Amino acid sequence: MFTFWDGDKYALGVITKQGSLHVESTGESHGLDSTDIMAIIKEGVEAVSRLRQWVESLDNPRWLDESALKYGPCVTEPGKIIGVGLNYRKHAEETNAAIPTSPILFNKFSNALSGHGERIIIPLETEKLDYEAELAIVIGKRAKDVSKEEALGYVFGYCPAMTCQRGICSLKLHNGY
Predict the structure, then answer these.
(1) What is the predicted pLDDT for the residue at 151?
(2) With a cut of 70, which residues of the chain have pLDDT below it?
(3) How big is the CA angle at 131 (ends 130 and 134), to the nearest 5 degrees?
(4) How many other C-beta atoms can be found within 10 angstroms of the C-beta atom of residue 173?
(5) Which of 37, 60, 64, 118 could bond to 114 as cystine, CB 3.0-4.6 Å?
(6) Coil, helix or strand for 165?
(7) CA nearest to 121, candidates 161, 113, 10
(8) Taking Cα atoms as reference points, which of 53, 55, 49, 47 lies closest to residue 23?
(9) Is 121 in contact with 151 (CB distance < 8 Å)?
């Protein structure tokens, strides 16, 4: 799944072996009810299952011209974006930082989201820009005080947060979804 600009709004696309398709324009004529990435994430397993069945049942899908797509962010309206700093030993060693004894958390804001190839706005006062590839874990259900054993049951999917695979930012689903 991925989002892209369709006029002045985000639309949902699905990657198949034959190409990428526009869910909303194709879905309207086939009765699919969840055509927004946030609705699908919120609804979870049931919505993804219906989306898969729908894709498999299509006779004449609307294929997208992938070379003309302007991609959007993987998740268009995240409630929270929480980063974990120095989350592996080698990174801490590379930066000459002490190995943390507990997670170093920081926030990011949704107005910093962009899609593949979109311009990233850098504040004028920035003197040094740091970058790295990051993996975003998309939590699909409300969670609090979740045990380590239950944690993966709350993961909807994964997506790149800084770099993109195959030239696009797509949401890779977790096994439970």
Answers:
(1) 94
(2) 27-33, 130-131, 162-177
(3) 140
(4) 17
(5) 118
(6) strand
(7) 113
(8) 55
(9) no
- Sequence-distant (6+) residues with CB within 8 A of 88 are none
Q: Hey, what are 113's tokens?
A: 């989201």
Residue 64 tokens read as 């997208």
Residue pair 169/115 in contact by the 8 Å Cβ criterion: yes
**Amino acid symbol at 72:** G
Cα 22–Cα 137–Cα 162 angle in degrees, nearest 5: 75
Q: Considering only CA atoms, which of 71, 79, 86, 80 is closest in space to residue 134?
A: 86
According to CATH, where is 3.90.850.10 located in the chain?
81-173
Give the CATH architecture of domain 81-173: Alpha-Beta Complex (3.90)
How many other CB atoms are found less than 10 A from the CB of residue 119? 6
Question: Are the C-beta atoms of 19 and 12 separated by less than 8 Å?
Answer: no
Give the separation between CA 160 and CA 137, rounded to whole angstroms. 9
Q: How many residues does the chain have?
A: 177
Question: What six digits make up the tokens of 40?
Answer: 């699908």
pLDDT in tens, 148-171: 999 999 999 998 876 333 334 555
Six token digits for residue 142: 């409300």
